[in-house]
Write a structure and sequence with these properties.
64% of the residues lie in helices and 0% in strands. The longest helix has 30 residues, at 126-155. The chain folds into two domains: 5-58, Orthogonal Bundle (Arc Repressor Mutant, subunit A), CATH 1.10.10; 67-161, Tetracycline Repressor, domain 2, CATH 1.10.357.10. The chain has helices at 5-19, 26-33, 37-40, 47-58, 74-90, 95-99, 109-121, 126-155, 169-180, 183-194. It is an all-alpha fold.
Length: 200
């Protein structure tokens, strides 16, 4: 197999799913690929650069979405975008942790610019448009961080949030409702309030 940036990233994502981010090392990746560790640095200057490339690869399928254009329903686009972003991160072990702290790649800038253009066409000032984009991005990353951390706790047999009804009746009732609905529904409900479409 010819070693390229793409094959390294693919191998890195496979290793991530096998061992998780805490056990992910360039030495382990080199062993998996059957190469010496220094060879990786011909393609990636640092582990951070490799992690960034992995984060971008996780979101590759999102590039197939239609580009935002002025006149589009921006709330509907943001809803579908947030759902797709969450699914992409959940598809990989510790996906949110890998993505946290990355900056947009050059390939992602056209979509970001189109999103800004759409929001500004709706009357938002540029700084507010950017704040909206950051809010949604960080909301999804934070949400998935919590989802994946909760999954790790469950795997270790740790008890879930379970307040006593006699002491915390509101929390107990709401917590039971949340536990009985799908994670997708809970995410959509929270997202609806960010979009201004939620109700009491």
């Amino acid at each position: 197999m010819r070693l390229t940036r793409e094959t390294i990233v693919q191998g890195a994502l496979e290793l991530l799913n096998e061992v998780g981010l805490d056990e992910f090392t360039t030495r382990r990746l080199a062993d998996k690929l059957g190469i010496q560790s220094p060879t990786l640095y011909w393609h990636f200057k640092s582990k951070r650069e490799l992690l960034d490339a992995m984060a971008y690869a996780m979101l590759k399928d999102l590039d197939a979405r239609p580009m935002p254009v002025p006149g589009s329903d921006w709330r509907a686009l943001w809803l579908e975008g947030a759902r797709g972003f969450r699914r992409a991160l959940l598809a990989y072990r510790d996906g949110a942790r890998v993505h946290a702290g990355t900056l947009p790649s050059v390939n992602q800038l056209p979509r970001a610019e189109a999103s800004m253009r759409l929001l500004c066409s709706e009357g938002f000032a540029p700084e507010k448009a950017l704040a909206i984009m950051l809010a949604f991005s960080r909301f999804v990353v934070g949400w998935v961080l919590e989802e994946q951390a909760a999954g790790s706790r469950a795997d270790e047999g740790q008890s879930a949030f379970n307040p006593l009804p006699e002491s915390f009746p509101f929390l107990a009732e709401a917590g039971q409702l949340i536990k009985n609905q799908s994670p997708d529904r809970t995410f959509d409900l929270a997202l609806s309030f960010l979009l201004g479409s939620g109700s009491n």
